Amino acid sequence: MKLKYTAPLRGELAVPGDKSISHRSVMFGALAQGRTEIRHFLTGADCLSTIACFRKMGIEISQNGSDVTVFGRGLHGLSAPAGVLDAGNSGTTVRLMSGILAGQDFPSVITGDDSICRRPMKRVLQPLTEMGAFITSQQGNGCAPLDIRPARLHGIHYPSPVASAQVKSCVLLAGLYADGRTSVTEPVVSRNHSELMLRYFGADVTSEGCTASIAPEPVLRGQKINVPGDISSAAYFIAAALLVPGSEVLLKNVGINPTRDGMLRVCREMGADITLLNEDHSGAEPCADFLVRSSSLHGTTIEGAIIPSLIDELPILAVLAAFADGTTVIRDAAELKVKESDRIAVMTENLARIGCDVEAREDGMVIRGGKALHGAVIDSHKDHRVAMSFAVAALACSGETEILDSDCVTISYPGFYDDLNMLCR
Ligand code: S3P
Fold first, then answer.
1. 250/383 Cα distance (integer angstroms)
2. CA of 238 to the centre of ligand 1 (A)
3. CATH class of the domain whose range is 19-226
4. Which residue out of 19, 24, 89, 92 has the highest number of ligand 1 atoms within 8 Å of its CB and is therefore the one to mutate?
5. Whose CA is nearest to atom 10 of ligand 1?
6. What are the pLDDT digits (tens) for 45-79?
7. So where are the chain's domains?
8. CB-based pocket (< 6 A), ligand 1
9. Which of 51, 102, 348, 366 is most buried (most C-beta within 10 Å)?
10. Which atom of ligand 1 approaches the CA of 96 most closely?
11. Which CATH number fits domain 2-16+228-424: 3.40.50.1820, 1.50.10.100, 3.40.50.620, 3.65.10.10?
Protein backbone atom coordinates (compact mmCIF):
# COMPACT_ATOMS: atom_id res chain seq x y z
CA MET A 1 0.00 0.00 0.00
CA LYS A 2 1.31 3.44 -1.02
CA LEU A 3 0.09 6.59 0.72
CA LYS A 4 0.77 10.31 0.59
CA TYR A 5 -0.84 13.59 1.55
CA THR A 6 -3.89 14.47 -0.52
CA ALA A 7 -6.11 16.87 1.44
CA PRO A 8 -7.09 17.83 5.00
CA LEU A 9 -9.38 15.37 6.79
CA ARG A 10 -13.01 16.50 6.85
CA GLY A 11 -16.27 14.84 7.81
CA GLU A 12 -17.75 12.28 10.18
CA LEU A 13 -16.85 8.70 10.91
CA ALA A 14 -18.18 5.92 13.14
CA VAL A 15 -15.18 3.65 13.78
CA PRO A 16 -15.81 -0.11 14.18
CA GLY A 17 -16.74 -1.64 17.52
CA ASP A 18 -14.28 -2.04 20.36
CA LYS A 19 -12.09 -5.12 19.97
CA SER A 20 -11.78 -5.95 23.68
CA ILE A 21 -15.52 -5.60 24.24
CA SER A 22 -16.42 -7.57 21.09
CA HIS A 23 -14.28 -10.56 22.18
CA ARG A 24 -15.79 -10.56 25.65
CA SER A 25 -19.38 -10.26 24.41
CA VAL A 26 -18.99 -13.54 22.47
CA MET A 27 -17.11 -15.35 25.24
CA PHE A 28 -19.47 -14.36 28.04
CA GLY A 29 -22.50 -14.81 25.78
CA ALA A 30 -21.39 -18.39 25.12
CA LEU A 31 -21.15 -19.07 28.88
CA ALA A 32 -24.50 -17.44 29.62
CA GLN A 33 -27.91 -19.04 29.41
CA GLY A 34 -29.99 -17.87 26.48
CA ARG A 35 -29.41 -15.48 23.68
CA THR A 36 -26.93 -12.60 23.65
CA GLU A 37 -27.59 -10.01 20.94
CA ILE A 38 -24.56 -7.93 20.01
CA ARG A 39 -24.74 -4.76 17.90
CA HIS A 40 -21.71 -3.02 16.30
CA PHE A 41 -19.56 -6.12 16.84
CA LEU A 42 -16.04 -5.74 15.41
CA THR A 43 -15.73 -8.06 12.41
CA GLY A 44 -11.92 -7.89 12.45
CA ALA A 45 -9.97 -11.14 12.11
CA ASP A 46 -9.17 -11.35 15.85
CA CYS A 47 -12.80 -11.31 16.94
CA LEU A 48 -13.75 -13.73 14.16
CA SER A 49 -11.15 -16.12 15.63
CA THR A 50 -13.01 -15.98 18.95
CA ILE A 51 -16.31 -16.75 17.21
CA ALA A 52 -14.70 -19.70 15.36
CA CYS A 53 -13.32 -21.14 18.63
CA PHE A 54 -16.73 -21.10 20.33
CA ARG A 55 -18.47 -22.54 17.28
CA LYS A 56 -15.97 -25.40 17.48
CA MET A 57 -17.18 -26.02 21.04
CA GLY A 58 -20.81 -26.36 19.95
CA ILE A 59 -22.02 -22.78 20.43
CA GLU A 60 -24.37 -21.54 17.73
CA ILE A 61 -23.43 -18.02 16.69
CA SER A 62 -25.16 -16.18 13.86
CA GLN A 63 -23.60 -13.17 12.18
CA ASN A 64 -25.12 -10.60 9.89
CA GLY A 65 -22.52 -7.88 9.30
CA SER A 66 -21.82 -6.33 12.70
CA ASP A 67 -24.95 -7.89 14.27
CA VAL A 68 -24.03 -11.08 16.09
CA THR A 69 -26.26 -13.40 18.12
CA VAL A 70 -24.75 -15.95 20.48
CA PHE A 71 -26.95 -18.82 21.65
CA GLY A 72 -25.37 -19.41 25.05
CA ARG A 73 -25.47 -22.82 26.74
CA GLY A 74 -24.49 -21.87 30.27
CA LEU A 75 -21.22 -22.19 32.21
CA HIS A 76 -21.09 -25.96 31.64
CA GLY A 77 -22.57 -26.03 28.14
CA LEU A 78 -19.42 -26.09 25.97
CA SER A 79 -18.56 -29.35 24.23
CA ALA A 80 -15.16 -30.86 23.46
CA PRO A 81 -13.77 -29.29 20.25
CA ALA A 82 -12.95 -31.59 17.33
CA GLY A 83 -9.36 -30.48 16.79
CA VAL A 84 -7.16 -27.61 17.84
CA LEU A 85 -8.65 -24.20 18.71
CA ASP A 86 -7.06 -21.56 16.48
CA ALA A 87 -6.78 -18.04 17.91
CA GLY A 88 -5.06 -16.66 14.79
CA ASN A 89 -3.18 -13.47 15.72
CA SER A 90 -5.28 -12.79 18.82
CA GLY A 91 -3.59 -12.67 22.24
CA THR A 92 -6.92 -11.83 23.88
CA THR A 93 -8.44 -15.03 22.48
CA VAL A 94 -5.63 -17.31 23.71
CA ARG A 95 -5.24 -15.76 27.14
CA LEU A 96 -8.90 -15.29 28.05
CA MET A 97 -9.92 -18.65 26.60
CA SER A 98 -7.19 -20.50 28.47
CA GLY A 99 -8.94 -19.39 31.69
CA ILE A 100 -12.26 -20.73 30.40
CA LEU A 101 -10.75 -23.96 29.02
CA ALA A 102 -8.93 -24.70 32.29
CA GLY A 103 -12.34 -25.11 33.95
CA GLN A 104 -13.88 -27.51 31.39
CA ASP A 105 -14.33 -31.25 31.81
CA PHE A 106 -12.75 -31.96 28.40
CA PRO A 107 -9.18 -31.60 27.13
CA SER A 108 -8.28 -28.97 24.55
CA VAL A 109 -5.38 -27.43 22.67
CA ILE A 110 -5.27 -23.75 21.79
CA THR A 111 -2.76 -22.11 19.48
CA GLY A 112 -2.46 -19.37 16.86
CA ASP A 113 -0.22 -17.91 14.16
CA ASP A 114 3.59 -17.48 14.25
CA SER A 115 3.35 -14.21 16.19
CA ILE A 116 1.06 -15.79 18.82
CA CYS A 117 3.43 -18.75 19.22
CA ARG A 118 6.21 -16.31 20.18
CA ARG A 119 4.19 -14.29 22.71
CA PRO A 120 4.59 -15.02 26.44
CA MET A 121 1.95 -17.31 27.94
CA LYS A 122 3.74 -17.99 31.25
CA ARG A 123 1.84 -15.02 32.58
CA VAL A 124 -1.36 -17.11 32.35
CA LEU A 125 0.20 -20.55 32.91
CA GLN A 126 1.51 -19.41 36.30
CA PRO A 127 -1.77 -18.30 37.95
CA LEU A 128 -3.81 -21.08 36.30
CA THR A 129 -1.35 -23.69 37.62
CA GLU A 130 -1.64 -22.13 41.08
CA MET A 131 -5.40 -22.62 40.78
CA GLY A 132 -4.83 -26.33 40.13
CA ALA A 133 -5.19 -26.27 36.34
CA PHE A 134 -3.41 -28.79 34.11
CA ILE A 135 -2.06 -26.48 31.46
CA THR A 136 1.28 -26.75 29.71
CA SER A 137 3.16 -25.20 26.84
CA GLN A 138 3.54 -28.00 24.22
CA GLN A 139 7.05 -26.91 23.26
CA GLY A 140 8.05 -26.20 26.87
CA ASN A 141 8.95 -22.62 25.90
CA GLY A 142 6.13 -20.88 27.79
CA CYS A 143 4.32 -20.11 24.52
CA ALA A 144 1.37 -21.55 22.58
CA PRO A 145 0.32 -24.21 21.62
CA LEU A 146 -1.15 -24.77 25.08
CA ASP A 147 -2.39 -28.21 26.19
CA ILE A 148 -5.22 -28.09 28.70
CA ARG A 149 -6.67 -31.05 30.61
CA PRO A 150 -9.62 -31.24 33.02
CA ALA A 151 -8.85 -30.30 36.63
CA ARG A 152 -10.55 -29.08 39.78
CA LEU A 153 -9.80 -25.39 40.20
CA HIS A 154 -9.33 -23.59 43.51
CA GLY A 155 -10.03 -19.97 44.27
CA ILE A 156 -6.80 -18.04 44.82
CA HIS A 157 -5.59 -14.54 45.34
CA TYR A 158 -3.16 -13.72 42.57
CA PRO A 159 -0.82 -10.72 42.84
CA SER A 160 -0.04 -10.20 39.15
CA PRO A 161 3.44 -8.89 38.37
CA VAL A 162 2.11 -7.20 35.20
CA ALA A 163 -0.75 -4.78 34.67
CA SER A 164 -2.51 -6.87 32.03
CA ALA A 165 -6.24 -7.10 31.41
CA GLN A 166 -5.63 -10.36 29.58
CA VAL A 167 -4.03 -11.95 32.64
CA LYS A 168 -6.63 -10.49 35.01
CA SER A 169 -9.50 -11.64 32.78
CA CYS A 170 -8.01 -15.12 32.36
CA VAL A 171 -7.81 -15.61 36.13
CA LEU A 172 -11.31 -14.21 36.73
CA LEU A 173 -12.74 -16.51 34.04
CA ALA A 174 -11.06 -19.54 35.58
CA GLY A 175 -12.54 -18.25 38.85
CA LEU A 176 -16.02 -18.94 37.43
CA TYR A 177 -15.16 -22.65 37.78
CA ALA A 178 -13.23 -22.55 41.09
CA ASP A 179 -14.25 -23.85 44.49
CA GLY A 180 -14.05 -20.44 46.16
CA ARG A 181 -13.63 -16.75 45.48
CA THR A 182 -10.79 -15.70 43.15
CA SER A 183 -9.11 -12.32 43.14
CA VAL A 184 -6.34 -10.58 41.20
CA THR A 185 -4.32 -7.56 42.27
CA GLU A 186 -2.43 -5.67 39.59
CA PRO A 187 0.38 -3.13 40.05
CA VAL A 188 -1.72 -0.57 38.13
CA VAL A 189 -5.35 -0.98 37.03
CA SER A 190 -5.70 -2.30 33.47
CA ARG A 191 -8.82 -2.09 31.28
CA ASN A 192 -11.86 -3.28 33.23
CA HIS A 193 -14.22 -4.48 30.48
CA SER A 194 -14.35 -8.03 31.87
CA GLU A 195 -15.37 -6.86 35.31
CA LEU A 196 -18.08 -4.55 33.91
CA MET A 197 -19.47 -7.07 31.46
CA LEU A 198 -19.35 -10.12 33.75
CA ARG A 199 -21.31 -8.08 36.30
CA TYR A 200 -23.81 -7.11 33.58
CA PHE A 201 -24.29 -10.82 32.77
CA GLY A 202 -25.03 -11.52 36.47
CA ALA A 203 -21.68 -12.54 38.00
CA ASP A 204 -20.68 -11.40 41.49
CA VAL A 205 -17.61 -9.30 40.63
CA THR A 206 -16.13 -6.62 42.85
CA SER A 207 -13.42 -4.10 42.05
CA GLU A 208 -11.56 -2.11 44.66
CA GLY A 209 -8.43 -0.20 43.80
CA CYS A 210 -6.15 -2.54 41.87
CA THR A 211 -8.01 -5.70 42.99
CA ALA A 212 -10.84 -7.44 41.15
CA SER A 213 -12.56 -10.51 42.56
CA ILE A 214 -15.21 -12.98 41.43
CA ALA A 215 -17.44 -15.60 43.08
CA PRO A 216 -17.64 -19.03 41.40
CA GLU A 217 -20.55 -20.70 39.61
CA PRO A 218 -22.80 -17.71 38.88
CA VAL A 219 -25.82 -18.09 36.62
CA LEU A 220 -24.96 -15.84 33.68
CA ARG A 221 -27.89 -14.68 31.58
CA GLY A 222 -27.78 -13.61 27.92
CA GLN A 223 -27.90 -9.86 27.36
CA LYS A 224 -28.19 -7.17 24.70
CA ILE A 225 -24.86 -5.44 24.06
CA ASN A 226 -24.23 -2.34 22.02
CA VAL A 227 -20.47 -2.22 21.45
CA PRO A 228 -19.07 1.35 21.48
CA GLY A 229 -16.60 2.47 18.81
CA ASP A 230 -13.03 1.41 19.58
CA ILE A 231 -10.96 4.28 21.00
CA SER A 232 -7.87 2.35 19.85
CA SER A 233 -9.15 2.60 16.24
CA ALA A 234 -10.37 6.19 16.67
CA ALA A 235 -6.80 6.99 17.76
CA TYR A 236 -5.52 6.91 14.14
CA PHE A 237 -8.12 9.44 12.96
CA ILE A 238 -7.57 11.63 16.01
CA ALA A 239 -3.87 11.68 15.16
CA ALA A 240 -4.40 12.23 11.43
CA ALA A 241 -6.78 15.15 12.07
CA LEU A 242 -4.35 16.69 14.57
CA LEU A 243 -1.38 16.39 12.20
CA VAL A 244 -2.82 17.44 8.84
CA PRO A 245 -3.36 21.23 8.80
CA GLY A 246 -6.92 22.37 8.09
CA SER A 247 -8.53 19.12 9.31
CA GLU A 248 -11.72 18.83 11.32
CA VAL A 249 -13.36 15.44 11.96
CA LEU A 250 -16.20 14.18 14.10
CA LEU A 251 -15.71 10.62 15.40
CA LYS A 252 -19.08 9.26 16.49
CA ASN A 253 -19.89 7.10 19.50
CA VAL A 254 -16.40 6.20 20.75
CA GLY A 255 -15.84 4.40 24.06
CA ILE A 256 -14.37 6.61 26.81
CA ASN A 257 -13.95 4.07 29.59
CA PRO A 258 -11.42 5.76 31.95
CA THR A 259 -9.22 2.63 31.85
CA ARG A 260 -8.83 3.21 28.07
CA ASP A 261 -8.81 6.97 27.56
CA GLY A 262 -5.15 7.77 28.34
CA MET A 263 -4.48 8.86 24.77
CA LEU A 264 -7.03 11.67 25.05
CA ARG A 265 -5.33 12.94 28.17
CA VAL A 266 -1.86 12.80 26.60
CA CYS A 267 -3.00 14.46 23.35
CA ARG A 268 -4.57 17.32 25.27
CA GLU A 269 -1.39 17.68 27.30
CA MET A 270 0.51 17.92 23.97
CA GLY A 271 -1.77 20.78 22.89
CA ALA A 272 -4.48 18.90 20.95
CA ASP A 273 -7.85 20.50 20.23
CA ILE A 274 -10.29 17.67 21.03
CA THR A 275 -13.84 18.32 22.26
CA LEU A 276 -16.09 15.58 23.62
CA LEU A 277 -19.75 15.92 22.60
CA ASN A 278 -22.87 13.94 23.51
CA GLU A 279 -21.20 12.14 26.42
CA ASP A 280 -23.34 9.16 27.40
CA HIS A 281 -22.73 7.51 30.76
CA SER A 282 -26.04 5.62 30.87
CA GLY A 283 -24.72 2.19 29.77
CA ALA A 284 -22.06 -0.10 31.26
CA GLU A 285 -19.47 1.48 28.95
CA PRO A 286 -19.46 5.29 28.59
CA CYS A 287 -19.07 6.83 25.13
CA ALA A 288 -18.96 10.20 23.36
CA ASP A 289 -18.43 11.87 19.99
CA PHE A 290 -14.96 13.40 19.47
CA LEU A 291 -14.56 16.66 17.55
CA VAL A 292 -10.90 16.89 16.54
CA ARG A 293 -9.24 19.89 14.87
CA SER A 294 -5.66 20.13 13.60
CA SER A 295 -3.35 21.49 16.28
CA SER A 296 0.30 22.29 16.80
CA LEU A 297 1.68 19.81 19.29
CA HIS A 298 4.59 19.79 21.71
CA GLY A 299 6.48 16.92 23.32
CA THR A 300 5.61 15.36 26.66
CA THR A 301 6.52 12.53 29.03
CA ILE A 302 4.31 9.43 29.04
CA GLU A 303 5.00 7.23 32.06
CA GLY A 304 3.63 5.53 35.15
CA ALA A 305 0.02 4.69 35.92
CA ILE A 306 -1.35 6.08 32.64
CA ILE A 307 0.53 3.45 30.55
CA PRO A 308 -2.03 0.59 30.66
CA SER A 309 -4.80 3.03 29.63
CA LEU A 310 -2.99 3.82 26.35
CA ILE A 311 -0.78 0.79 25.80
CA ASP A 312 -2.21 0.06 22.33
CA GLU A 313 -2.06 3.75 21.39
CA LEU A 314 1.69 4.15 22.05
CA PRO A 315 2.64 3.45 18.40
CA ILE A 316 0.40 6.27 17.12
CA LEU A 317 1.42 8.50 20.04
CA ALA A 318 5.04 7.91 18.97
CA VAL A 319 4.07 9.16 15.48
CA LEU A 320 2.44 12.26 17.00
CA ALA A 321 5.61 12.82 19.05
CA ALA A 322 7.73 12.63 15.87
CA PHE A 323 5.84 15.62 14.44
CA ALA A 324 5.52 17.51 17.77
CA ASP A 325 7.99 20.21 18.78
CA GLY A 326 10.49 19.12 21.41
CA THR A 327 11.25 15.82 23.06
CA THR A 328 8.81 13.10 24.07
CA VAL A 329 9.88 10.41 26.52
CA ILE A 330 7.92 7.16 26.79
CA ARG A 331 8.86 4.98 29.75
CA ASP A 332 7.41 2.17 31.95
CA ALA A 333 6.16 0.58 28.72
CA ALA A 334 8.30 -2.59 28.42
CA GLU A 335 5.04 -4.45 27.62
CA LEU A 336 5.35 -2.97 24.12
CA LYS A 337 8.04 -5.57 23.42
CA VAL A 338 5.55 -8.46 23.72
CA LYS A 339 2.67 -7.18 21.59
CA GLU A 340 1.90 -8.37 18.03
CA SER A 341 5.48 -7.26 17.28
CA ASP A 342 8.25 -5.78 19.45
CA ARG A 343 6.72 -2.33 19.17
CA ILE A 344 9.74 -0.56 20.68
CA ALA A 345 12.09 -2.02 18.06
CA VAL A 346 9.64 -1.84 15.16
CA MET A 347 8.48 1.74 15.83
CA THR A 348 12.06 2.91 16.34
CA GLU A 349 13.21 1.24 13.12
CA ASN A 350 10.40 2.75 11.06
CA LEU A 351 10.42 6.22 12.64
CA ALA A 352 14.14 6.39 11.80
CA ARG A 353 13.29 5.47 8.19
CA ILE A 354 11.09 8.57 7.83
CA GLY A 355 13.92 10.71 9.22
CA CYS A 356 12.91 10.96 12.87
CA ASP A 357 15.49 11.35 15.65
CA VAL A 358 14.45 8.42 17.87
CA GLU A 359 16.17 6.20 20.41
CA ALA A 360 14.90 2.87 21.74
CA ARG A 361 15.02 2.34 25.50
CA GLU A 362 14.50 -0.85 27.50
CA ASP A 363 11.03 0.32 28.56
CA GLY A 364 10.12 2.89 25.91
CA MET A 365 11.50 5.45 23.46
CA VAL A 366 12.92 8.95 23.34
CA ILE A 367 11.62 10.90 20.34
CA ARG A 368 13.09 14.27 19.43
CA GLY A 369 10.32 15.70 17.29
CA GLY A 370 9.64 18.66 15.09
CA LYS A 371 11.94 17.94 12.11
CA ALA A 372 10.45 17.74 8.61
CA LEU A 373 9.94 14.03 7.89
CA HIS A 374 9.85 12.22 4.56
CA GLY A 375 8.09 9.20 3.08
CA ALA A 376 9.85 5.83 3.15
CA VAL A 377 9.28 2.08 2.86
CA ILE A 378 7.81 0.91 6.18
CA ASP A 379 8.05 -2.67 7.40
CA SER A 380 4.90 -3.22 9.45
CA HIS A 381 6.15 -6.62 10.64
CA LYS A 382 2.50 -7.64 10.06
CA ASP A 383 1.52 -5.62 13.12
CA HIS A 384 -1.83 -3.90 12.48
CA ARG A 385 -1.15 -0.99 14.82
CA VAL A 386 2.24 -0.30 13.21
CA ALA A 387 0.69 -0.31 9.71
CA MET A 388 -2.10 2.10 10.73
CA SER A 389 0.33 4.38 12.60
CA PHE A 390 2.50 4.83 9.51
CA ALA A 391 -0.52 5.25 7.22
CA VAL A 392 -1.24 8.32 9.37
CA ALA A 393 2.42 9.42 9.41
CA ALA A 394 2.41 9.21 5.59
CA LEU A 395 -0.17 12.03 5.45
CA ALA A 396 2.20 14.39 7.26
CA CYS A 397 5.42 13.30 5.50
CA SER A 398 6.75 14.75 2.25
CA GLY A 399 6.66 12.36 -0.71
CA GLU A 400 5.26 8.86 -0.72
CA THR A 401 5.23 6.14 1.94
CA GLU A 402 4.94 2.45 1.15
CA ILE A 403 3.71 0.11 3.88
CA LEU A 404 4.69 -3.54 3.56
CA ASP A 405 2.11 -6.16 4.59
CA SER A 406 -0.39 -3.32 4.87
CA ASP A 407 -3.35 -5.72 4.79
CA CYS A 408 -2.62 -6.78 8.40
CA VAL A 409 -4.99 -3.95 9.42
CA THR A 410 -7.82 -6.47 8.96
CA ILE A 411 -6.88 -7.81 12.42
CA SER A 412 -8.69 -4.89 14.06
CA TYR A 413 -9.97 -2.61 11.28
CA PRO A 414 -10.90 -4.21 7.94
CA GLY A 415 -12.11 -0.93 6.32
CA PHE A 416 -9.28 1.25 7.63
CA TYR A 417 -7.80 2.51 4.33
CA ASP A 418 -11.26 3.17 2.85
CA ASP A 419 -12.26 5.23 5.90
CA LEU A 420 -9.00 7.18 5.76
CA ASN A 421 -9.49 7.90 2.04
CA MET A 422 -13.09 8.91 2.63
CA LEU A 423 -12.04 11.58 5.18
CA CYS A 424 -9.12 12.83 3.04
CA ARG A 425 -11.22 13.74 0.00
C1 S3P B 1 -6.45 -6.42 25.78
C2 S3P B 1 -5.52 -6.08 26.71
C3 S3P B 1 -4.21 -5.48 26.39
C4 S3P B 1 -4.19 -4.93 24.98
C5 S3P B 1 -4.79 -5.87 23.99
C6 S3P B 1 -6.24 -6.17 24.34
C7 S3P B 1 -7.71 -7.03 26.22
O8 S3P B 1 -3.21 -6.48 26.51
O9 S3P B 1 -2.87 -4.62 24.60
O10 S3P B 1 -4.76 -5.30 22.69
O11 S3P B 1 -8.68 -7.08 25.44
O12 S3P B 1 -7.76 -7.48 27.37
P13 S3P B 1 -2.55 -6.83 27.93
O14 S3P B 1 -3.62 -7.25 28.81
O15 S3P B 1 -1.59 -7.94 27.67
O16 S3P B 1 -1.87 -5.56 28.34
1. 27
2. 21
3. alpha beta
4. 92
5. 312
6. 999 999 999 999 999 999 999 999 999 999 999 99
7. 2-16+228-424, 19-226
8. 20, 92, 164-166, 169, 190-191, 311-312, 335
9. 102
10. 12
11. 3.65.10.10
